[in-house]
Task: structure prediction
Amino acid sequence: MEAIDIALGLFDLLLVFLLLWLAWLVMSSEDLFKAIVLFVAFGLLMALVWVRLEAPDIALAEAAIGAGLTGALLMAALDRLNAVKPMPAAAVVTSAKREQPSLPSKVLPLVALVLIVLGLGYALLSLPDVADGLVPNVKEQMAQSGVKNPVTAVLLNFRGYDTLLEMVVLLLALLSVWSLGGVRKLSPRNTNPVLASLCRVLVPVLILVSCYLLWVGADAPGGAFQAGSVLGAAGVLLLLSGWHVEQKILLWPLRFILVLGSGVFIIIAAVLFFTQGGLLTYPVAQAGWLILLLESAATLSIGATLAALFFGGIPKSRVDQ
Amino acid sequence: MNIPMIYALLGITLFSVGLYGLIVREHLLRKILALNIMGSGIFLVLVALGKRSVGDLPDPVPHAMVITGIVVAVSATALALTLMLKLVEVSGSAVLHDAPKERS
Result:
């Protein structure tokens, strides 16, 4: 065994140990703020795990979303929670009273936990060591996919339905947040000159990175989801720095961008259905360009949706003004 | 035991830790964190099992599923957080209480 293998094995063990420890701390620490910070650290380490499992596409998505956007969403929710809830004394007392669960209610979940780990572990270990899954199918069809990155080929070509429906899921999540009446604004904070100038430097870089990820996704790790998440992160940064958008942009142009991804997908699917005889069956010669078009629309929609989810509030309509 | 299998086992352990937190912890924000950890565990199992292929290429289909899953998870988290905030606005508490017992 080479020295590098031993070092990597040790690294794997360290990673496994750290992730378990962090997950346990996220669940057990009393302070919610601490739990969220630990969860962000957990997301970053997960990105490393994806690299170790040779899944760089997932690592990129996890680094942007799991470690970035989810953390921002949780922090914003905690901020809003503290603004809404000036914990009444009575509630503190009742929660203190509820803090002492009986012994069985503590022990039973632990027993169930051990049983689940043992059962699932047994199921995992009884799987065959080698299983090719869908690798041969993907390899066989790669030449006709229009791209060279197998993950992009699966996402946008072989299983294009999934991505189409996912765009609709994103839209649905935002519509649900809006139909709940949105959430209140983040508590006002001092405009920080450091944050403002950081934004001016970082946002153009993030947009550039996003375009790069989108373009490179055809041949190498990257693609619409990663690019969209980076774009969403740029939006979150802008919103945090107190960026104001003109009302008229927030009404129809924003809604247009939000539905662009699903819309382009559905239009292309419908056109292909009539010309090629199947939903999302790309003609081989045009596959590359169609995928790029779909990915560009999806990137814009994902970025806008994620930033809008972070903002939470409904852009005001004329009625409210 | 090979490396992917260790990560798959880590995945089920994370799933169980999340499940435990989901059951035991009362605060809804903690339950949302628990659901996210459970999700990470599931993703880990999917990708680790996809690495059992013979060739140099790990199975790209689970990778695509997990990328989709991560994006769905973040949007579901945003929705869950909004629901939690609405509940707090209405009830003043971020804990789900049992329905008051009926007097017999």
The longest helix of chain A spans residues 56-84.
